[in-house]
Amino acid sequence: MIGCGYLGAVHAASMAQLGHEVVGVDVDEPKIAMLAAGRTPFFEPGFEELLAESLASGRLRFTTDFGDAAGARVHFVCVGTPQKRGEYAADLRYVESAVESLIGVLAAGELVVGKSTVPVGTAARLAELVGDKVPGAMLAWNPEFLREGFAVQDTVHPDRLVYGLPDENADTAHALLDEVYATIVAAETPKVVTDYATAEMVKTAANSFLATKISFINAMAELCEATGADVKQLADAIGHDDRIGRKFLNAGLGFGGGCLPKDIRAFMARAGELGADQALTFLREVDNINMRRRIRMVELAREVLDGSLLGKRVAVLGAAFKPESDDIRDSPALNVAAQLQLQGATVVLTDPAAIENCRKHWPQIDYADTAEEAARGADAVLLLTEWRQFRELDPVAFGKIVRQKRVLDGRNALDRDVWEAAGWSYRALGRRHAS
Ligand code: UGA
């Protein structure tokens, strides 16, 4: 397994769990040292236990030495493809360097399997490189659909398998992948066997669809704000139509993280290179709608705080880009918290898992260990990541800690009636507010 981040580390431990002998390789020495010692470098429910079991089985080890990848029959590439600085395109340097390093240890008959999210056309280019340098070695593209927070479950029980296979040796590559995923295949998991380009596009299309769905409901939220309609009820009502479905129709602060935002941008950039940019111009709007929600949230806070953020004490609940994660990459919550602080508010931020990561990026914000501590003396409380412990707060007890009972629900996650009954003024994106 080349690359031991959120994807690779979980995949490595899961594959060991499925009975394979796995070696995880990464250039990041401290990360490898932690994983080898059974400590998790990031927060992911269930991962610590899985890691401990897999290490104890003797089938999993970690190393920084690429040479240890020699002799494996299957080499997974799980490195990141972040957005390039100052551009929309994906930065492929880690994928390229992983494949180049692999070429040094690869032998005929072995299979390189790309899992990283890459621009369409990458697999064909890498396959040519691999084939030229190591005749008889093969490459397949096998995108990953795991969600952070559910990474273990999604890896061991994925909802589908997608194999992008080479024209030559397709049957051999197919059989090898089936062997790796034997238990998943045996569970009759739907499998789509296709070419490289389709496999690559399945991933970017899926993430673009999810981003579009979220921005659609957030665009409706903007309209609800203009008309006095209620976006939550609207989502419930349209979601009953199973052609639409209720999932991913939660209006609020919008999407963030290390995937959706950069994937839609890289997809647009790639479409431009292919002369098909018109096909994806709508994704620019999806991106715009999404970013506008963060600005709106800051405006709403200012409005609620009598028109000025200066000197106001604001408790922010949540910093991770979603619950059950410590990931703050492009986090809408952290983005709003930072804006509030930059615009003169005194922000006290709490998150069950992400505070350590936040501190490194925003040392000027105050951090608290609990929601109660963050809310002490607050002029307003903002719920920005819908962790269960925040959703389950008791508004009566919580109301005794704050200076002003004003709550802004950035994720439409609180029970509005209960909070209002406890004397709170409740505001949320896309919802009517009691005047
Ligand atoms: C996403 C995809 O869901 C995975 O299938 C994919 O494998 C992964 O990207 C990836 O490319 O690696 P993830 O980034 O973990 O997974 O998070 P999601 O659960 O998709 O949530 C993304 C963002 O959308 C979060 O900030 C979340 O708060 C937001 N969201 C989600 C909403 O604002 N509303 C919703 O209704 C749902």
What this model shows, in words?
With 435 residues, the protein is α/β, with parallel strands linked by helices. It has three domains: 6-194, Rossmann fold (3-Layer(aba) Sandwich); 203-287, N-(1-d-carboxylethyl)-l-norvaline Dehydrogenase, domain 2 (Orthogonal Bundle); 293-428, Rossmann fold. It has 18 helices and 13 strands. A six-stranded parallel sheet has the order 10-9-8-11-12-13. The protein has a three-stranded parallel sheet with strand order 3-4-5, with helices on both faces. The longest helix is centred in the middle third of the chain and has 32 residues, at 196-227. It is globular, with a radius of gyration of 23 Å. 49% of the residues are buried. The model has no long low-confidence stretch (mean pLDDT 97). Bound molecules: uridine-5'-diphosphate-glucuronic acid (UGA). Uridine-5'-diphosphate-glucuronic acid binds at residues 117, 144-148, 207, 210, 214, 248-250, 252, 254-257, 259-260, 321-322. Its EC number is 1.1.1.22. It holds the Pfam family UDPG_MGDP_dh. It catalyses: UDP-alpha-D-glucose + 2 NAD(+) + H2O = UDP-alpha-D-glucuronate + 2 NADH + 3 H(+).
